[in-house]
């Protein structure tokens, strides 16, 4: 039965005899036959061609691999090749076979000569193990059978799931730390002096939030907002940000150890991609000449210019979102609907976040096309190089798509909007948004929460539903009940392969970057989990919940909804490791900036130790931040409003002459006070100190945890020693001596 088993299946429409497509198909199949392939034909509503490779191809592969790697233990050329290697070799040859018209399978598929080409999901023992222990919801919290995944899908897929499992496991610690931070914010720091002062400030009259017919408002109206802000913005957040910087390093260092153990166990630590590719090329064509590495500075310059243009477009989109929020804020404030006018800022932030999510969906498709175009322009030599090149480009584009708006909220919102009487305006009309008197960090929290929840929930639903529905539709397509087949109808009707081929054909196609998409999704999620985690401590918890579902959803998709992925060899996760390391450094910078600039942590500390009641007298009973809110609000005389500003001068029956706004400015000429410069210097000093300490801790952690465990190093050393001792020349030399 093993002799009859096909390695690969080609599917074609039933074309008219003698037509161009039929001729092209025959030419291609003839070329495969010349290489010794046996081809089995089954006719249904489509034509199915089962391709089986001759034994000598696999013997040739083993011989070439042994020549390339003399360290490999000697074995017979007639040894059985692994199923994954078999599929990989056949896939390579089928896709690189050239017809007399110089057309490959890809060209023929574009011309609709062939409709599909795929490896088969086999009804073997390993598939049953994966279906029971991996590809079902009942094993949600069980360990993944990585060895079985490797034997069925190859090392590249197995390494992805090993990495994802390791990342998910370590997210447990980050999620717990995030929960502790939130719990500490709601309990230990709930009786914050700052939020208490905001809630008690029923006599503090604040300046209007818009220019036309907006009334003054009382600071105590935002009591709930202040409490939520302090739940995130407290001393525990600083410790959590430092913890996450260390966690990101420890995660990567521990993954390097895990990878080294797994790869050594699989005997892949000395495997070379170039050698593998050359071996496959020589099996396909013994006259093959290698394609040399090349680099063009002109081409690189063009790619750089085009990439920068797209990045500028992405930053422009972030600007459009800023404009939307400013306009929405003005419109909501003047709305007749009480709910909108009362919560104008919150509504502008929330609708802005949803709009940002929509731009992410649209721009992801654009980014993919541009990255692929730039990648083809670069002309990478191997598939792995193409993936690495594509990965770097799409990650950079996706980073700007996802984070441009967040960067604005974190570092620019409320800092470039001017002050009453001299506001910065869009098109000379709409005022830029202001920060809440208790800080801007809640805006960032809301934006991140909405994007992460929408992104994870919707993308997971779509990721599962679309292939599932597509699969059901393909299965429901009519197949003729009556078979009016040619000679040999009964044999074909009873052919055991037919049902299996049809079942595989009805599954969704897998394309070259299927696994790449999974990596990209996780790396963007990792960015959200680390870069601005100080503003959203629940990010690791959301990522953990998502990943537990994601692992098994991907497993179900691969096993039951998609055709079998062509197994590929790999000894690491490729360029993604460098991308993750870059995110780790960005996380240190991002969190340092969030605490130094976005958070009110520094201004409160400066007030406590330079201006607060504790500096004047030894008030043991008084909180050192008493009076902070009053001190952080500047005074504005309403007679200095711009001429076109129409405010209602009366508020609750009182004539208003002065109002307060969040800034550190003098009451007479509205220039910055000395306190502003003190805070500015403290922010800068904290940023430098935090980043240097965090980066030093990261370096110490990286040094302290070796990349390769001693056990693995000793195993490799023993292997080298045994290989040298077993060399015939060595034995002869020892005998002579």
TrEMBL record:
The entry's keywords: Cell membrane, Glycoprotein, Membrane, Transmembrane, Transmembrane helix
- Anoctamin transmembrane domain location: 149-719
The family note in this entry says: Belongs to the anoctamin family.
Locate the transmembrane regions by residue number.
Answer: 157-184, 236-255, 301-324, 344-363, 390-413, 523-549, 573-597, 680-705
Protein's membrane topology: Multi-pass membrane protein
Q: What is this protein called?
A: Anoctamin
Report the main location listed first in the record.
membrane
Q: Which organism is it from?
A: Dicrurus megarhynchus
UniProt cross-references to PANTHER family, sorted A to Z: ANOCTAMIN, ANOCTAMIN-9
Which Pfam families would you find in this protein's record? Anoct_dimer, Anoctamin
GO CC terms, sorted? plasma membrane
Where does the protein end up? Cell membrane; Membrane
Could you give a GO molecular-function term held by this entry?
Answer: protein dimerization activity
Q: Where is the Anoctamin dimerisation domain?
A: 79-146
Q: Which gene is the coding source of this polypeptide chain?
A: Ano9
């Amino acid at each position: 039965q093993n002799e009859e088993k096909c390695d690969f299946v080609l599917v074609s429409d039933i074309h008219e005899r003698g037509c161009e497509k039929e001729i092209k198909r025959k030419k291609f199949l003839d070329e495969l036959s010349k290489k010794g392939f046996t081809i089995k034909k089954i006719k249904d509503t489509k034509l199915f061609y089962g391709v089986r490779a001759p034994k000598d191809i696999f013997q040739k592969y083993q011989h070439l691999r042994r020549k390339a790697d003399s360290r490999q233990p000697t074995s017979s050329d007639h040894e059985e090749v692994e199923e994954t290697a078999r599929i990989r070799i056949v896939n390579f040859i089928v896709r690189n076979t050239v017809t007399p018209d110089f057309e490959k399978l890809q060209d023929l598929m574009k011309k609709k000569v062939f409709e599909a080409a795929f490896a088969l999901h086999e009804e073997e023992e390993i598939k049953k193990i994966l279906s029971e222990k991996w590809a079902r919801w009942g094993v949600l919290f069980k360990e993944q059978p990585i060895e079985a995944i490797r034997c069925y899908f190859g090392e590249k897929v197995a390494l992805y799931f090993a990495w994802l499992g390791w990342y998910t496991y370590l997210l447990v610690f980050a999620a717990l730390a995030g929960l502790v931070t939130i719990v500490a914010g709601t309990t230990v720091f709930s009786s914050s002096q700052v939020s208490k002062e905001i809630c008690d400030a029923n006599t503090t009259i604040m300046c209007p939030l818009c220019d036309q017919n907006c009334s003054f408002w009382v600071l105590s109206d935002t009591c709930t907002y202040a409490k939520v802000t302090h739940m995130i913005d407290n001393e525990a957040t600083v410790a959590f940000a430092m913890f996450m910087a260390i966690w990101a390093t420890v995660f990567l260092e521990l993954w390097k150890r895990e990878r080294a153990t797994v790869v050594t166990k699989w005997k892949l630590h000395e495997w070379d991609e170039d050698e593998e590719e050359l071996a496959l090329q020589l099996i396909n064509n013994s006259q093959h000449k290698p394609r040399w590495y090349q680099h063009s500075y002109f081409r690189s310059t063009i790619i750089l210019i085009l990439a920068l243009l797209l990045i500028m477009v992405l930053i422009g989109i972030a600007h459009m979102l800023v404009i939307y929020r400013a306009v929405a804020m003005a419109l909501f404030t003047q709305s007749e609907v009480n709910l909108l006018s009362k919560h104008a800022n919150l509504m502008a932030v929330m609708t802005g976040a949803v709009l940002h999510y929509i731009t992410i969906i649209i721009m992801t498709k654009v980014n993919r096309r541009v990255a692929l175009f730039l990648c083809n322009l670069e002309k990478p030599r191997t598939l792995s190089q193409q993936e690495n090149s594509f990965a770097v480009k799409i990650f950079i584009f996706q980073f700007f798509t996802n984070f441009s708006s967040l960067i604005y909220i974190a570092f620019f919102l409320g800092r470039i909007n001017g002050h009453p009487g001299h506001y910065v305006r869009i098109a000379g009309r709409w005022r830029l948004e202001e920060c809440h008197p208790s800080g801007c960090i809640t805006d960032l929290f809301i934006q991140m929460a909405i994007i992460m929840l929408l992104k994870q929930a919707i993308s997971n639903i779509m990721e599962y539903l679309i292939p599932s529905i597509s699969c059901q539709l393909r299965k429901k397509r009519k197949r003729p009940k009556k078979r009016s087949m040619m000679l040999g109808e009964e044999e074909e009707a009873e052919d055991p392969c037919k049902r299996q081929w049809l079942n595989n054909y009805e599954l969704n196609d897998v394309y070259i970057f299927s696994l790449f998409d999974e990596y990209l999704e996780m790396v963007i999620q990792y960015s959200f989990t680390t870069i601005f985690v100080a503003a959203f401590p629940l990010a690791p918890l959301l990522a953990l919940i998502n990943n537990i579902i994601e692992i098994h959803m991907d497993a179900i998709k691969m096993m039951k909804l998609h055709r079998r992925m062509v197994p590929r060899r790999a000894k690491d996760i490729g360029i993604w490791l460098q991308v993750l390391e870059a995110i780790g450094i960005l996380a240190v910078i991002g969190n340092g900036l969030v605490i130094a600039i976005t958070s009110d942590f520094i201004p409160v500390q400066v007030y406590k130790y330079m201006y607060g009641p504790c500096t004047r007298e030894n008030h043991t009973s008084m909180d050192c931040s008493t009076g902070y809110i009053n001190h952080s609000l500047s005074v504005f005389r309403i007679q200095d409003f711009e001429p076109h500003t129409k405010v209602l001068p009366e508020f609750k029956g009182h004539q208003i002459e002065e109002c307060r706004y969040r800034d550190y400015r003098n009451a007479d000429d509205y220039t910055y006070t000395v306190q502003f410069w003190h805070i500015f210097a403290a922010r800068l000093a904290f940023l430098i100190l935090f980043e240097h300490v965090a980066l030093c801790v990261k370096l110490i952690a990286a040094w302290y945890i070796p990349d390769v465990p001693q056990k693995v190093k000793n195993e490799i050393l023993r292997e080298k020693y045994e290989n040298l001792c077993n060399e015939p020349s060595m034995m002869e030399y020892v005998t002579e001596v």
